[in-house]
Amino acid sequence: MSGLDLKICPACGDRDDHRLASGAPEDAPALACARCAHRWPFRRLPLFALTGPSGAGKSTVGPALAARLGDRVVVLEQDVLWTAGLREPEDDGYGQPRFRSTWLRMAAMIQQSGRPVVLCGTVVPPEFEPLPERELFSDIHYLAYLAQDEVLAARLRARPAWRQWSEPRIAETLAFARWLRADAASMCPPVTVFDTTRATLDAAVDAACEWITARLPG
Questions:
Q1: Could you please report the per-residue DSSP string of the chain?
Q2: pLDDT band (50, 70, 90) for residue 214
Q3: Would you state the pLDDT for residue 86?
Q4: Are residues 131 and 107 in contact, defined by beta-carbon separation less than 8 angstroms?
Q5: Contact in structure between 45 and 26 (CB atoms under 8 Å)
Q6: Residues paired with 77 in a beta bridge
Q7: How far, in Å, are 57, 67, 210 from residue 63 at the CA level?
Q8: Alpha-carbon distance values, 159 to 47, 152, 162, 172, 197 (Å)
Q9: What is the pLDDT of residues 94-128, one digit of tens each?
Q10: Cα end-to-end distance, the chain, whole Å
Q11: Which residues pair with 193 in a beta bridge?
């Protein structure tokens, strides 16, 4: 039986939310099956969340990050899983717990190759930190790209029609951006902010590369 799916025990095949084994040293983490008590090795690495509102530059920087750091990290675009089946509301106002949990599980499987994941998509600590899958990572680091309101709005209005950027949706995005800028430093963990209003692509990529490499294990 395969242990690639972190919910499936490679010994007995039971499917459950297997937890990190109690008593496992930090430098040798393991998952444990509640049914048969089997333990198997697990790489617990940091996750890097490159976040911010739509239009701030995440998707533009992502490919450049993959080219520059591809031998050290795996860069993924969050929106590829943005399907109707995962858009599940939540009472705390943040929403999409199935979507967030699925991404954490996928990133945790990918990191078993030995390379941490850089996830490019709009996410804030209150959406990841309370989830059971959070313990699969040693840390989650957050870097938010932001831009001034008028620049962000202009970028969104210039997008292709199929992306359906209406004025109410743009206003909602600007409100989120203002909230994120105001609260970034007080979140748990704090969110690092980089302003892309006047930044060149090279400068935005450099900032992300420096931020990631400073936090890579070893």
A1: ----STTB-TTT--BS-PEEPTT--TTS-EEE-TTT--EEE-----EEEEE--TTSSHHHHHHHHHHHHTTT-EEEEGGGG--GGG----TTSS--HHHHHHHHHHHHHHGGGS--EEEES---HHHHTTSGGGGGSS-EEEEEEE--HHHHHHHHHTS-GGG---HHHHHHHHHHHHHHHHHGGGSSS--EEEE-SS--HHHHHHHHHHHHHTTS--
A2: very high
A3: 55
A4: no
A5: no
A6: 120
A7: 11, 6, 16
A8: 29, 11, 8, 16, 17
A9: 567 888 888 999 999 999 999 999 999 999 999 99
A10: 32
A11: 144
- Please state the pTM of the whole predicted model: 0.90
Place of tokens 């309370």: 130
pLDDT in tens, 156-165: 999 999 989 9
Question: What b/e string do you get for 198-212 counting C-beta neighbours within 10 Å, with b at 16 or more?
Answer: ebeeeebbbbbbebb
State the pLDDT at residue 21: 74
| Residue 88 and residue 100 in contact, taking contact as beta carbons nearer than 8 Å | no
138: tokens are: 């040693």
